[in-house]
């Protein structure tokens, strides 16, 4: 599913593209499930900050669960994996039946997770790890997460608790740190809950939803964070999920060919859990 021109969800249409032959450090993955992320909406509309000029037709999609179709000695055919496409730099999209990926973007699929749940893990999980890395909190510190039931918020809460950090609800404070996953007025409220000289990060830059970051105040220096595409972190997420430390929530599943409907559903708001496409 791709866009030949940027615009509304209706511009997402089926296309037939050649699957690139894998290089020495690449494999072809059969996509079993792909998550729908807010970033995908920006890709479809042409407002995503790619590293290079976007190439059309453009296939959206950041994270997936799948099966290695054409493998190598380290990643043999039939291996169940999760993966991140690193779309910002590669423009490789996961809204497809098959995708050719560098092996550095793969991790073994978590045991005990179905493909839809596993597909919801990479981008949100990597964002959560980056947020916690930026906050650099010691065990026992207090952390406010606004949007704790969303994809990033939920995984942040789970990882934070696993690390001994105390996660508190909205309205409790002052706290040592806050993570904004929502933007707007709720971002301001989270910022206001942080103690003087505390820490604050947001995953909602102003180009995405106005009102995410703020100027420095009361000794708090806001930071905007995003997922870092690191192999070790992706494999840590898979390990924690296999151990039962991390779970994801899937709201609705759509056939891949109904990607436009999934985008419209996400834009409408009120989604509980990740939307997932099934090829």
**Beta strand %:** 15-25%
Domain unit count: 2
Using the alpha-carbon principal axes, give the shape: globular
CATH superfamily (homologous) name of the largest domain? Medium-chain alcohol dehydrogenases, catalytic domain
Radius of gyration: 19 Å
Number of helices: 8
Describe the structure.
- By secondary structure, the protein is α/β, with parallel strands linked by helices.
- The chain folds into two domains: 9-120 and 248-278, Medium-chain alcohol dehydrogenases, catalytic domain (Quinone Oxidoreductase, Chain A, domain 1, Alpha-Beta Complex); 124-224, Rossmann fold.
- Helix content is 27%, strand content 24%.
- The protein is built from eight helices and twelve strands.
- It has helices at 38-45, 87-90, 115-119, 122-135, 151-162, 184-193, 231-242, 259-268, and strands at residues 26-36, 63-70, 80-84, 98-102, 106-108, 142-146, 166-168, 175-180, 194-202, 223-224, 250-255, 274-278.
- Strands 1, 2, 3, 4, 5, 11 and 12 form a seven-stranded mixed β-sheet that branches.
- Helix 6 (184-193) links the parallel strand 8 and strand 9 (194-202).
- Helix 4 packs across helix 5.
- The radius of gyration is 19 Å and the shape is globular.
- It starts with 25 loop residues before the first strand and ends with a strand.
């Amino acid at each position: 599913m791709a866009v030949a021109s940027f615009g509304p969800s209706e511009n997402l249409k089926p296309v037939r593209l050649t699957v690139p032959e894998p290089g020495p450090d690449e494999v072809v993955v059969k996509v079993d499930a792909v998550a729908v992320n807010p970033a995908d909406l920006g890709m479809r509309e042409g407002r995503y900050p790619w590293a290079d000029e976007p190439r059309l037709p453009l296939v959206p999609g950041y994270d997936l669960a799948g099966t290695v179709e054409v493998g190598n000695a380290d990643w043999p055919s039939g291996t169940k994996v999760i993966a991140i496409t690193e779309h910002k730099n590669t423009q490789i999209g996961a809204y497809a039946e098959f995708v050719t990926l560098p092996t550095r973007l793969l991790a073994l699929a978590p045991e005990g997770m179905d493909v839809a749940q596993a597909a919801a893990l990479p981008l949100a999980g990597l964002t959560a790890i980056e947020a916690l890395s930026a906050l650099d909190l010691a065990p026992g510190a207090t952390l406010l997460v606004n949007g704790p039931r969303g994809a990033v918020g939920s995984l942040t809460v789970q990882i934070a608790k696993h690390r001994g950090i105390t996660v508190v609800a909205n309205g409790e404070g002052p706290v040592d740190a806050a993570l904004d996953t929502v933007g707007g007025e709720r971002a301001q409220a989270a910022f206001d809950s942080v103690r003087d000289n505390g820490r604050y990060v947001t995953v909602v830059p102003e180009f995405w939803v106005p009102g995410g970051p703020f100027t420095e105040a009361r000794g708090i220096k806001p930071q905007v964070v995003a997922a870092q595409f690191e192999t070790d972190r992706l494999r840590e997420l898979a390990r924690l999920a296999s151990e039962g430390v991390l779970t994801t929530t899937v709201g609705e599943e759509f056939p891949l060919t109904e990607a436009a409907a999934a985008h419209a559903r996400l834009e409408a708001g009120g989604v509980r859990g990740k939307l997932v496409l099934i090829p």
